[in-house]
Automatic annotation (TrEMBL):
Domain of life from the UniProt record: Bacteria
Name of the molecule in the record: Putative drug exporter of the RND superfamily
TM spans (from-to): 180-200, 207-225, 231-250, 271-298, 310-331, 388-408, 544-563, 575-596, 608-627, 659-677, 689-712
Family: Belongs to the resistance-nodulation-cell division (RND) (TC 2.A.6) family. MmpL subfamily.
SSD domain span: 203-329, 546-711
Gene3D superfamilies (alphabetical): Multidrug efflux transporter AcrB transmembrane domain (1.20.1640.10)
Cellular component terms (Gene Ontology): plasma membrane
Signal peptide: none
One of the Pfam families matching this protein, by short name: MMPL
Length: 762
């Protein structure tokens, strides 16, 4: 693979204008497609195979007239202190408000709270439901303004009015202040790490181009594939983070090659052949982990995985082609000014590293022969002197941070998780106050009596059973389908939607109605948003361990192939578990317990979003392997060329430690930049991923990995002979370049293929 990528790098370097033009054309096409595509709808989560989803599907079949795709708004009215909303003047204000909406543009219907019984027992709170002909994303600004104007009209009359429902929902758009701060931090880190504005700008520019193409494609495919704004934001988040990192790794290797005396074209080829091999492998691990999210069976999670995987694949392609093309454009200006001045004389020994002829171990691998300098080397030597102490402190520290994860509770956010500054949250609170906490999370019970002798008798028995279940506040009157073989009714819990008591209630109802099913032959299903959220959360919990097992197994297998070692993959998998456990501990502490929630702008605590654990496992697995590969590749490279185990560790840190640290800081900055968004999903993702990268890069890879390798010594690179014969040699270290690729090797312009010996362009 190294030889093939070496040729791609040289070809892209020479054909820089062609490569740049192709990527620019791809950007224009993607943005044009996004501009012409209609906006996608925000879809509710679904979980095929669960009881709640089966009930939803049955309702769609038996009650097609109620399957409205239009948005809904709920106007909640509260009378002034000491008054009732049923008082004459307040009732007149409510009806005038609703009258201003009735028959308005895009309004399908409005309900009168006094006729529908939507008034609280104490008479202080009432609500009206407004149904629209279009979905939330298709409501015009004039329609939304009319709704807000109606609410203001009632407020002018002295009532407290808040608006709930989906009508005011907006798609989360990237580009806020915190995201820009994250990008700015990434730019500063690039400049400090590379010592060159040109090199930093190159890495940032290529990453932004890849992200823009990915974002444009997701937007263009939103309607045909049903992609939501969360998919687009995840693609943006991942594409930006890995895009900058991958460009940084290749740029850093290019600078090393130039500093050792290679001509820019040769340096570009070698950078893509070595660091590019690591980029391909690292990107492949992220891609596989994200695509693997599809096995969980949740369509939204599958779409998020595919969107993120596509962004990562684009980042890899950009790093392998556009980055070396820009090397051809900027040449040695990518190097710091001081290095450029000192680079006049080649520093490679004759015959060294490029030809592979007549070297000693030190000559063949200048990296291993050079004295150790810099903070990375000093840290590596410190760990080599005290491996047990470092391992104990780092391992116990991560274990302590992971302890809160034992209290992990999963759920899905609703209006209750929004800021108290939003009208949706205040409407939620008013409805809870007036009608009980369970009013915002009613349960829908579907009675399929198609195989029952008497639909009404079966339904009446269900109603009687529900009213006898502890925790049910009320049971509504059943409604029959047109064919009279299906009934649907509503049961309101006494407790809030996300409470543990409501979860227990759903299970209690399902257990209680099983006797009715046996007696009547009817099928009875419990659904509704609350039941669906409970089913999805439980499915996520059940899938967590199997998915984690698959991911860890994949990690061990891939690292076994790459590093040709048994113990290195096992160590990497255990370190990954520590990183993930600590990240989950942070999520529980912040989002469930409220630690530092105010500092992060998180106003409401509650269960961690049920999709997050599996999503974070998939993403962090790939990112953890990124740092493992980039750090250990240089260690194995030095070890293969004759360095002792200790010196191989020092060599890895000297050449990759600073770059890996910079890449991790960049990724943390990008992820943390999304914490400021209002979406609980994005906030949870930002905090979880930033914490996971922090722990994995700086504790696991920088402390635990060298400590374990120091303790293992030569055993770290042991591989049984049978595996050595069976496993393919992917040559991620670029060993083949020293044996088979002469300095004059190049690539034909028409295709990436070997050239006749002797053809070369400087």
């Amino acid at each position: 693979m190294a030889t093939f990528l070496y040729r791609i790098g040289r070809w892209a370097f020479r054909r820089r204008r062609l490569v740049g033009g192709l990527w620019l054309g791809a950007l224009v096409l993607a943005l044009a497609a996004a501009a012409m595509a209609p906006a996608g709808e925000e879809e509710d989560l679904s979980m095929p195979g669960t009881e709640s989803q089966k009930a939803f599907d049955l309702l769609d079949e038996r009650f097609p007239e109620s399957n409205s795709q239009g948005a809904e708004a709920r106007l909640v009215f509260q009378a002034p202190d000491g008054q009732r909303v049923t008082a004459r003047e307040n009732k007149a204000a409510v009806q005038d408000t609703l009258g201003s909406l009735d028959g308005g543009d895009q309004v399908a219907s409005t309900t009168d709270p006094y006729e529908s019984g939507a008034v609280s027992e104490d008479g202080t709170i009432a609500y009206s439901t407004i149904t629209y002909t279009e979905g939330a994303v298709d409501l015009t600004e004039s329609t939304k303004s009319a709704l807000e104007d109606a609410a203001n009209q009632a407020r002018d009359a002295g009532l407290t009015v808040e608006i709930g429902g989906s009508a005011l929902d907006v798609e989360e758009e990237p580009g806020g202040t915190t995201e820009l701060i994250g990008v700015a931090v990434a730019a500063v880190v690039l400049v400090l790490a590379l010592g060159s504005l040109v090199a930093a700008g190159l890495s940032l520019l290529t990453a932004l181009l890849g992200v823009a193409i990915a974002f444009g494609l997701v937007s263009a495919l939103a309607v045909p594939l049903g992609l939501t704004s969360t998919v687009a934001i995840l693609a943006l988040m991942l594409g930006l983070a890995v895009g900058i990192d991958y460009a940084l790794f290749i740029t850093s290797r290019f600078r090393d090659e130039c500093a050792q005396g290679s001509e820019p074209e040769e340096a570009a080829g070698r950078a893509v052949g070595t660091a590019g091999s690591a980029v391909v492998f690292a990107g492949a691990t992220v891609f596989i982990a994200l695509v693997g999210l599809g096995v969980v069976g949740i369509p939204e999670l599958t779409k998020m995985g595919m969107g993120g995987a596509g962004a990562v694949a684009l980042a890899v392609l950009v790093a392998l082609t556009l980055v070396p093309a820009l090397f051809g454009l900027f040449g040695r200006r990518v190097l710091p000014r001081g290095v450029r001045k000192a680079a006049g004389a080649p520093r490679r020994d004759a015959g060294n590293y490029a030809t592979g002829h007549g070297e000693t171990a030190g000559d063949r691998h200048p990296i291993a022969a050079k004295p150790a300098k810099g903070m990375g080397s000093r840290w590596a030597r410190f760990v080599l002197r005290r491996p047990v102490a470092v391992l104990m402190v780092a391992g116990l520290g991560l274990g302590a941070v992971a302890v809160p994860a034992l209290s992990l509770e999963l759920g899905l956010p609703g209006d209750e998780s929004k800021s108290v500054e939003t009208t949706q949250r205040r409407a939620y609170d008013l409805l809870s106050e007036g009608f009980g906490p369970g009013f915002n999370g009613p349960l829908t019970v579907v009675v399929d009596a198609s195989k029952s002798a008497d639909t009404r008798a079966a339904t009446n028995q269900v109603v009687k059973t529900l009213r006898g279940v502890d925790g049910v506040a009320s049971v509504g009157d059943p409604a029959l389908s047109r064919t009279k073989d299906t009934a649907v009714l509503t049961a309101v819990p006494k407790t809030a939607p996300n409470s543990g008591e409501t979860k227990d209630l759903v299970h209690a109802i399902r257990g209680a109605v099983s006797g009715v099913e046996a007696d009547t032959g009817a099928g009875i299903l419990v659904t509704g948003t609350t039941a669906m959220n409970i089913d999805i959360s439980e499915a996520m919990s059940d899938a967590l361990i199997p998915y984690l097992t698959v991911v860890i197994g994949l990690a061990v297998l891939l690292l076994l192939v790459v590093f040709r070692s048994v113990l290195v993959p096992v160590k990497a998998a255990l370190g990954f578990l520590l990183s993930v456990g600590a990240a989950f501990g942070v999520l529980v502490a912040v989002f469930q317990w409220g630690w530092a929630a105010d500092l992060l702008g998180i106003e409401q605590t509650g269960p961690v979003m049920s999709l997050m654990p599996i999503l974070i496992i998939g993403i962090v697995f790939g990112l953890a392997m990124d740092y493992e590969v980039f750090l250990l590749t240089r260690m194995r490279e030095a070890h293969v060329h004759g360095a002792s185990p200790g010196e191989a560790i020092v060599s890895g840190f000297r050449h990759s430690g600073r770059v890996v640290a910079a890449a991790a800081i960049i990724m943390i900055s990008v992820f943390a930049g999304f914490v400021g968004m209002s979406s609980p999903t994005i906030q949870t993702m930002g905090v979880g991923l930033a914490a996971a990268v922090l722990f994995d890069a700086f504790v696991v890879r920088m402390a635990i990995v060298p400590a374990v390798l120091a303790l293992l010594g030569h055993r770290a690179w042991w591989l049984p002979r049978i595996l050595d014969r069976v496993l393919p040699n992917v040559d991620i270290e670029g060993e083949a370049l020293t044996r088979h690729v002469p300095a004059s090797a190049t690539v034909p312009d028409a295709a990436v293929a070997p050239l006749p010996a002797g053809r070369h362009r400087g």
